[in-house]
Every structure is written in C-alpha cells, then in structure tokens.
Specification:
- With about 170 residues, the chain is of the alpha+beta class.
- The chain has one domain: 2-C-methyl-D-erythritol 2,4-cyclodiphosphate synthase (60s Ribosomal Protein L30, Chain: A).
- The protein is built from 5 helices and 7 strands.
- It is globular and about 45 Å long.
- The chain starts with a strand and ends in a 9-residue tail after the last strand.
Length: about 170
C-alpha cells in the first residue's frame, strides 16, 4: 500500500539565531524563530510523513509546551517520525519539497540538505527532492519577514526486513 501526505510550515526570521534548513546551517544574518531549531523544511517534511500515515501532526508529537523539545535539532524530530512510521509498518518512499524564501540563495546548499535528509530517512538521495523559490517580493516570505516550506511525502508498507514495497 502506498500513501501520500502533505506538509507545510512557516517561521518568522529574527536576529540572533542561526538559520537551519534541511538540517544544514546556512550562512545568513538571521535565523528562524521557534521552539526547536525552527527548520521549516524538516517540519514540513515531518508533517507530510505523519499525515501520510494518519499519525497527526508535528505539534501533536513535539508540542511547544514540552521543554524536552526546546532547542532540539529538527533532525531528531525527523528521525523520531521515521521511527514512528516504522512502528506502524511504513517506510519512506520519497519526499518532494519546496522552500519559499526571498533570501538567502539556497541552490548551493541543496545537495547537502538532500544528503542529510536522505541519510536520516534511510533512503537514497534520488528519493529526496528539494527546490527553493521566491515570491518576487510579495507576502511575508517576499519581504523577508519569514520563510515557509511545503512537502509531499509518499510512504509504503514495509516488508519484514524493513524495506519498502514500492
């Protein structure tokens, strides 16, 4: 059985925080504000994966009221979501995602983000797609007030050996 999920996340840009996207620190004068490291890309991917398995959303599993998750790397959240999928008999088949930000330019960082995410999800790099788009100066992403990310994930039932049946 193949299932598909959709995820979205957005965070405000602020001074004094590192910018973390796809588990990679990106040189920039501001970072994203949030309870964890505020990695909008990984949060959108987590929500897509959780949605595909009908397991709720990132706020259900990692609430901002739980101090355990304060300041945590979103790679830990992604790993936990991957494990939750495994517990209910699913594995990741592929992820397609888009980061929406006016700045900084992200193209040179996408290969490292792709590799980082693929390793955590235990899939090949060709199963992880990351794109970066601007909004031509429109809206909160276009004015530099924040960033957003969208993701679609496909999951598949796993075999007894843990491999996906795709």
């Amino acid at each position: 059985m193949i299932r598909i999920g959709f995820g979205y996340d957005a965070h405000r840009l602020v001074s004094g925080r590192p910018l973390i996207l796809g588990g990679v620190e990106i040189p920039f004068d501001r970072g994203l504000l949030g309870h964890s490291d505020a990695d909008v890309l990984l949060h959108a991917i987590c929500d897509a994966l959780l949605g595909a398995a009908a397991l709720g959303d990132i706020g259900t599993h990692f609430p901002a009221t739980d101090l355990h998750w304060e300041g945590v790397s979103s790679l830990v959240l992604l790993r936990t979501v991957r494990d939750l999928l495994g517990e209910v008999g699913f594995g990741v088949y592929n992820v397609d995602s888009t980061i929406v930000a006016q700045a900084p330019r992200l193209a040179q960082h996408i290969p490292q983000m792709t590799d980082t995410i693929a390793k955590v999800l235990r899939v090949g790099a060709k199963q992880v797609s990351i794109k970066a788009k601007t909004t031509e100066g429109m809206g909160f992403t276009g004015t530099g007030e924040g960033m957003a990310a969208y993701a679609v994930a496909t999951i598949s039932e796993t075999t007894k050996a843990g491999e996906t049946n795709g």
